[in-house]
Amino acid sequence: MGKVKNRPEGYEDQKATAMKKALINSFQENIPNRVIRGDPSRMAHDEKKYTYEGLFKIEKYEQKKGLHNRVYTFHMKRKEDQR
Hints:
With 83 residues, the chain is mostly beta strands.
């Protein structure tokens, strides 16, 4: 992957954190992931709200060149055999 050009000071590529490594492992081992989504409109309040979205399979992942750095993207698809 090519170098990110004209990178402003303070920007760096995303690191492969433990969470990203777990997602990569799930992709490699074909293990579905439970997805729980937070409501962004309520995240600043004391009473946070989360919604269980179901089981998702990671179809692919990549490290893409963004505007100022490289970022990981995970392409997930909800498993069909759920209610």
